[in-house]
Amino acid sequence: IFGSILGVSAGFVLGKEGPMVHTGACIANLLGQGGSRKYHLTCNWLRYFKNDRDRRDLITCGCAAGVAAAFRAPVGGVLFALEEAASWWRSALLWRAFFTTAVVAVVLRTLIEFCRSGKCGLFGQGGLIMFDLSSTVATYSSPDLLAIILLGIIGGIFGGLFNFLLDKILRIYSIINERGAPSKILLTIIVSVITSMCSYGLPWLASCTQCPEDAVEQCPTVGRSGNYKNFQCPPGYYNGMASLFFNTNDDAIRNLFSTGTATEYHMSSLFIFFVAIYCLGLVTYGIAVPSGLFIPVILAGATYGRIVGTLLGSISSLDPGLFALLGAASFLGGTMRMTVSVCVILLELTNDLQMLPLVMLVLLISKTIADSFNKGVYDQIVVMKGLPYMEAHAEPYMRHLVAGDVVTGPLITFSGVEKVGDIVTALRITGHNGFPVVDEPPLTEVPELVGLVIRSHLLVLLKGKMFMKEPVKMSGSFVMERFGAFDFAKAGSGKGLKIEDLHFTDEEMQMYVDLHAIANTSPYTVVETMSLAKAALLFRELGLRHLLVVPKTPYVRVLTLSLTIYIMCVCVFFFSRVMHFLTHYNMILYQPFPLWIVPFICKGVHR
Amino acid sequence: IFGSILGVSAGFVLGKEGPMVHTGACIANLLGQGGSRKYHLTCNWLRYFKNDRDRRDLITCGCAAGVAAAFRAPVGGVLFALEEAASWWRSALLWRAFFTTAVVAVVLRTLIEFCRSGKCGLFGQGGLIMFDLSSTVATYSSPDLLAIILLGIIGGIFGGLFNFLLDKILRIYSIINERGAPSKILLTIIVSVITSMCSYGLPWLASCTQCPEDAVEQCPTVGRSGNYKNFQCPPGYYNGMASLFFNTNDDAIRNLFSTGTATEYHMSSLFIFFVAIYCLGLVTYGIAVPSGLFIPVILAGATYGRIVGTLLGSISSLDPGLFALLGAASFLGGTMRMTVSVCVILLELTNDLQMLPLVMLVLLISKTIADSFNKGVYDQIVVMKGLPYMEAHAEPYMRHLVAGDVVTGPLITFSGVEKVGDIVTALRITGHNGFPVVDEPPLTEVPELVGLVIRSHLLVLLKGKMFMKEPVKMSGSFVMERFGAFDFAKAGSGKGLKIEDLHFTDEEMQMYVDLHAIANTSPYTVVETMSLAKAALLFRELGLRHLLVVPKTPYVRVLTLSLTIYIMCVCVFFFSRVMHFLTHYNMILYQPFPLWIVPFICKGVHR
């Protein structure tokens, strides 16, 4: 939070929406872990979130709240969470996210109302709509459409180029940042100096412009924000480039979007500003400052749109301010590759419903163009960070493999009543999160799959030390008498039991423990001849962590995809390729898979 | 299309958006079937839609296009399709639906522009935003919020009551309608007469009001639409109730939403109009006229909101026109139970982004209140029509059952190389769409599940008459040489091969056919001890039609849920309860399940 405030205040070309999404997700994660017992910030009812599904849902809602607060766009926030953040969705979640953002909107609105008198600096200004364009009446004809299609195509190319260059720069930065704190700080200082030099140096290149006659009162601007900055010009004159540089990013966007000001900026000023912002946006993202990409992309896109609008002024009657909006849309489509959510966010930012068809058109064109070059910027970052992410669709090569093909070893299984020593050894020597349980003779006639036990439940059971001298099956209720449901609740990250914390005597190690009561007796299974593509789809669509592979022939098998848990701030992605497999006997087991979102782990990822 | 045009023109209290959604879905289905060969409306590339998934996607897009056209709300259309219509969603579909509605928006916009000169009656009026409220500046404080919460609560109760009464009335109507065409027509005539009596009779009850001084020019209104209808009043006076009744429904809504007209309607007029519209909306839906529910609900809700706004005028400073908007939102939330899509549709209808937080609040409150009484109106209709619909979540009782518990018989299986006569008999005596294929000795050492063949593929294979004298396994490529991929493409509804169309000689019936090449060797399977709730979730989340149940113990099993294919106009729902099961040997097989949407079958369902 503080990093973001200081970064934005320092005048970096970066957005505040990335850190705000991150903040929202972090708060949600904190609540999902049941609060913090260390700082006495906990509530008894928070324990209901102590399971994977509700915690994920909560974090998705937190992400939606972050977007909603950053753009003052409640519906856009829900859609962003749907389109970009969540890899799994259900109608109850839609409704909860909507509730969250409604609360955000009401709170924001109340605070803005409270601050309208100017007590809170710039906060109270603009109301819920940051760049209000609703007063403009836009009519457009066929030449306008042609101009807009051209705008979308070039915007898509610039967006794709942005992603390409950002990828290269982030790769260089990651090498620099790995060298330690001094390198990080030096890099930040260099970018900071370059930004300052651009902001202060470039306006010297622009010539002074006479104030328009109808705006003599506000020109040149006095104060922190406004359209006309004086900057070394004589009274009655303003410097166009300074008006763009010497404002907050939000105000610069507002200036670019403003209509009826076609001659406000020199072509040369706009062009220099565009190049500067495009490059500064690229070099700023990835330094050791919490940053988002939305604002730089909108800013560069709006400048680009205004340039195109001014150039095409002869064939199109649309205002350059509206072209700026469409230019911003084309850049967003070209870099983020989102459609519905960007469209709604832009709508909520500008309140300009008349332009909706054009915004949709531009988004579609630029996304299509950019998709032919490379992937969306968030996908690229996930790939670059090496975070394991499973695409929603199966990779083509998977169609030629079956689930049995990816089976490898060694895999550890337990029998329904297992020796304590064997369990402890298995937990110590492996990092697996799930183990199949197979009843073997003499407990049953033939080997039979009981289900799956997960590491954390095993640890709780071991800690209870309900051991037996002989390998006999107990009744399930016996375990339930000893343990409550909340004993097995998912602990906060880094807080669960560890095998290193448990100690057993030699005698205990020789005893037996019944796993039937804690085994999940309904694990999802696939037959070994199942196409890997379909198994991957099952895995992804149902949000599984473990998938058992059973044989066509009598013997039971289980498959593990031991995917390193990786995370990206809000959304979590899993690489289907980063798999390593284990087998033992003839069993395999998919392992710790869709742990969607663990915002606290992703300190290094800025968005 | 014509029914809807005539119904709306006749002045019924019904919406045009239901039939438009239906129309969109029908056109999409027509294209998805590859056009109509009978009417020479076909294209070669349409054959790429001849599979289930693309056809479903296309119909979802058609539904989105219908909503987008009805409300001139492109983003709302996408969200409606997401929230209400589609039971299965993927990101590519989101993007396609968005593309469809963008095209709709551009076409609509072009047509409106073309019609602006008045050549097309009322069509060109209002532009893309039907009820423009953007000019009003709304500020609200705590008492307003209290008033709005009250509005939401009562709106939710009225919405729930609407659903309850509609359910009862539709049950009575379905009895009447079953008696044949004369009863249907008589019912329609009666409703028509009642509507006419209300429209013409009720305004006599209202007294004349003097025209406001600032609106002398437009008062009383001359022409088809307007705020002030003269109706038997002296010049300079208008009849408030006539202004509501003697307009199109759209204009009545516009009048109710209009701000700065707090004293335009008498309280008594509003009250009578509310009761009349509430009741007429209930009795009109379900008669033999294509009708939607959105407009009647918005109309009743807006009137209700205006009444509340006028009553609470002393404690709230909000304009009654804005209260009308919130009232409409509360009724929509109370009946439809959608959140995001209704919110965006209202936003796109009114262009009033300032009110967004309040609209969200009201929607949430009324939905929550109404949810405690009954289900959403569409869900109710699905239940009433007896359409089999599977909820996205498993029913609680399923948690206590395992997949094996719902296994029943008889089930028919084929071996990998099966006698033609056995296949023909099986296809003739059952209506099953899928049959498991099990290789048995001597083909393999132990019985082994090969996969699943579906009826239509079997019929194609049988028609090709590639039979053998001896039961030997052929190479797969042999079949592929005889048949192209498009031979197995899904035919249009009612156009596929039927077993009755195929004839075989006695000699052929004694021959064998190899099913290996056409069997789906990767059917999704569950173990018989899998919890039924999890099996149902698998079925629903992956959009399956068939799910095989395999035993823990060596013997292979398959489970069929023989669900009658049912459809609801656009969305398709499946009852998890309407299941009947078949078994044979020890196998079961889930049958024809998520055939989402077949609009042509649902003549009787109006929306």
From TrEMBL, chains A, B:
<feature type="transmembrane region" description="Helical">
    <location>
        <begin position="587"/>
        <end position="605"/>
    </location>
</feature>
<keyword id="KW-0472">Membrane</keyword>
<keyword id="KW-1133">Transmembrane helix</keyword>
<dbReference type="InterPro" id="IPR001807">
    <property type="entry name" value="ClC"/>
</dbReference>
<feature type="transmembrane region" description="Helical">
    <location>
        <begin position="58"/>
        <end position="82"/>
    </location>
</feature>
<dbReference type="InterPro" id="IPR046342">
    <property type="entry name" value="CBS_dom_sf"/>
</dbReference>
<feature type="domain" description="CBS">
    <location>
        <begin position="410"/>
        <end position="463"/>
    </location>
</feature>
<keyword id="KW-0129">CBS domain</keyword>
<feature type="transmembrane region" description="Helical">
    <location>
        <begin position="88"/>
        <end position="108"/>
    </location>
</feature>
<keyword id="KW-0813">Transport</keyword>
<keyword id="KW-0677">Repeat</keyword>
<comment type="similarity">
    <text>Belongs to the chloride channel (TC 2.A.49) family.</text>
</comment>
<protein>
    <recommendedName>
        <fullName>CBS domain-containing protein</fullName>
    </recommendedName>
</protein>
<dbReference type="InterPro" id="IPR002251">
    <property type="entry name" value="Cl_channel_pln"/>
</dbReference>
<dbReference type="InterPro" id="IPR014743">
    <property type="entry name" value="Cl-channel_core"/>
</dbReference>
<keyword id="KW-0851">Voltage-gated channel</keyword>
<dbReference type="GO" id="GO:0034707">
    <property type="term" value="C:chloride channel complex"/>
</dbReference>
<dbReference type="InterPro" id="IPR051280">
    <property type="entry name" value="Cl-channel/antiporter"/>
</dbReference>
<feature type="transmembrane region" description="Helical">
    <location>
        <begin position="185"/>
        <end position="206"/>
    </location>
</feature>
<keyword id="KW-0407">Ion channel</keyword>
<feature type="transmembrane region" description="Helical">
    <location>
        <begin position="353"/>
        <end position="370"/>
    </location>
</feature>
<feature type="transmembrane region" description="Helical">
    <location>
        <begin position="270"/>
        <end position="301"/>
    </location>
</feature>
<feature type="transmembrane region" description="Helical">
    <location>
        <begin position="555"/>
        <end position="575"/>
    </location>
</feature>
<feature type="domain" description="CBS">
    <location>
        <begin position="522"/>
        <end position="573"/>
    </location>
</feature>
<keyword id="KW-0868">Chloride</keyword>
<dbReference type="InterPro" id="IPR000644">
    <property type="entry name" value="CBS_dom"/>
</dbReference>
<feature type="transmembrane region" description="Helical">
    <location>
        <begin position="146"/>
        <end position="165"/>
    </location>
</feature>
<keyword id="KW-0812">Transmembrane</keyword>
<keyword id="KW-0406">Ion transport</keyword>
<dbReference type="GO" id="GO:0009705">
    <property type="term" value="C:plant-type vacuole membrane"/>
</dbReference>
<dbReference type="Pfam" id="PF00654">
    <property type="entry name" value="Voltage_CLC"/>
</dbReference>
<keyword id="KW-0869">Chloride channel</keyword>
<dbReference type="GO" id="GO:0005247">
    <property type="term" value="F:voltage-gated chloride channel activity"/>
</dbReference>
